[in-house]
């Protein structure tokens, strides 16, 4: 069983193609409990495909996936959820006409006999929000339609944390948010890791990456250009890894980078 600092997810030599297009090439990727791993790359680098392979939406062509130290086959989103993998996509998948509790338990409602166990679900929602130190929502019975963008993102992240998840993947969580709401969400991302989750943060925003990430994995045209501690690189180096696959002595070998184009 993985503990804080141990890799909870490890991808080894992952490959994925769609027809003649080789989208992911021999990808090695790991994320540890208690860590925020920023996954960065230009459009078309393979970030979305990689996440969908982890989430069980796309089957891998070759390579190995290990979770909690053992090889696993993730043949669908239910299998991913059963392992403890939750993904918060950009569209958040929240129902505006339902309240926070109903959204957090949507599709996984608790029951007492034939009726919903509203008291148990409300208490679990309150407890999860409290554990993540969320103070930006007035009531767990607020309808999602009445929430701001930052509050909606908070609810989506708390929903992912509710299910005793070990790995939470966040796809551009601060996109289209204002400064104050971005601050709230980044604080929540950090608390998510500090409460023992492994977090993958997909972002184009270098300010966000350098504020909350512990490590950075840069993808360049389907290959991992670098997996480095955030403290060991500059923003300029990360941008070069994203755009050219290489920065000084860091990144893909010149020939490999050229072959990826």
Automatic annotation (TrEMBL):
Keywords: ATP-binding, Nucleotide-binding. The lineage of its organism: Bacteria, Bacillati, Actinomycetota, Actinomycetes, Streptosporangiales. It comes from the Bacteria. This is Sugar ABC transporter ATP-binding protein. PANTHER family: CARBOHYDRATE TRANSPORT ATP-BINDING PROTEIN MG119-RELATED (PTHR43790), SUGAR ABC TRANSPORTER ATP-BINDING PROTEIN (PTHR43790:SF8). Residues 9-246 form the ABC transporter domain. One of its GO terms (molecular function) is ATP binding. Pfam families: ABC_tran (PF00005).
